[in-house]
Design goal:
- This protein has 165 residues and is of the alpha+beta class.
- It is built from two helices and eight strands, in the order αββββαββββ.
- It has helices spanning 3-17, 89-105; strands at 22-24, 38-50, 56-62, 67-86, 111-118, 122-124, 129-145, 157-158.
- Strands 1, 2, 3, 4, 5, 6, 7 and 8 form an eight-stranded mixed β-sheet that branches.
- It is elongated and about 55 Å long.
Length: 165
Amino acid sequence: MKELTQVRQAVIQALNQAGLPALEAFPDRRANSYEGAVAAVAVGAAEGKVLGFCNYLGERYDETTGTIRELYGKQLEGEITVELRADRANACEAGVETAAEVLLGGLPSGIRPGELRWEALTWEKATKMFLRRGSLRCQALFVAESREDGVLFLDFVLKGVLKGE
């Protein structure tokens, strides 16, 4: 899974777990099918940075297999955008409060929040709903490790997110 997709999915999952329906960007009319606020999440511009020496972080002992695995890391700095829509202004504002709590303190450990900004509440003619846009500057940390045989490397995975085998 690509890194930006992992970040977007982690944010969507965290918002949904907090009780705020969230999904990837959606067509205008789809927002009307939700009661209360709904969030559309996207990851904007991102830039990568090297961690360690050529992304090499060192070794880790795998207690399960009794082997040593090499670790590599990657860091992205980017912007998560959230658009909250609701049919009532107070529902939109309540959604903003929930989203702010999640974005600043409820994301996986691999996403380090920075500055969070919200635009003013507006009325959107196309959807006939209230809209509030927010953006969070953040750093996302990814790790990859070698397989047991040490030959191949696994994909980079967002730190703090369990990987399904």
